[in-house]
Amino acid sequence: MAIYRIVKIGDPVLREKARPVPEITPNVIKLLDNMAQTLYDAQGLGLAAPQVGVAKRVVVIDVGEGLIELINPEIIRKEGLDTDFEGCLSVPGLRGEVQRAARVTVKALNRKGGEVKYEGEEMLARCFQHELDHLEGILFVDKAQNLTKIK
Ligand code: ZN
Fold first, then answer.
1. 2, 84, 109, 118: least CB-packed within 10 angstroms?
2. CA of 135: how far to CAs of 52, 68, 80, 89, 142, in Å?
């Protein structure tokens, strides 16, 4: 396994629309494994493949409830609204308030190619929406209010 370099705002890959994964190859498994290791190394909550320079629809998330791996994820249900602070490993030193759906259901493929569904609320719902935005080339700063510097 390896830790990837996390690309920062200004890198064009963060603004690309990521491509669907057509087939789960050993390279996709390696990408998932290395992204998880990179996420834990950086002590983040979520990481999307464009953040490691790979414009593919792959996301890893761990909000403290175990690792979630998502291939070709889609939000299939959104409910309610919630506004809270967010940051991003690709936008160091900034946080801001973003309005998101309060509860979402995500459909994706797992590493075996099986369909999985996750329901998330609070931090997990926010994380799903933040990471899936990365797959569209959207960063939280595009949507945030009250952007403030943190050390
Ligand atoms: Zn992010």
1. 2
2. 12, 16, 23, 15, 14
Would you call 136 a catalytic residue per the annotation? no
Q: Which H or E run includes 68?
A: strand 68-79
- Domains of the chain, first to last: 12-149 (3.90.45.10)
pLDDT at 1: 81
Q: How many Å lie between the centroid of ligand 1 and the Cα of residue 15?
A: 12
Q: Compute the distance from residue 24 Cα to the ligand 1 centre, in Å.
A: 24
Residue range 22-76, pLDDT digits in tens:
999 999 999 999 999 999 999 999 999 999 999 999 999 999 999 999 999 999 9
Vertex 19, ends 77 and 132: CA angle to 5°?
35
CA of 90 to the centre of ligand 1 (A): 6
The single residue of 115, 119, 121, 131 carrying the catalytic annotation is 131
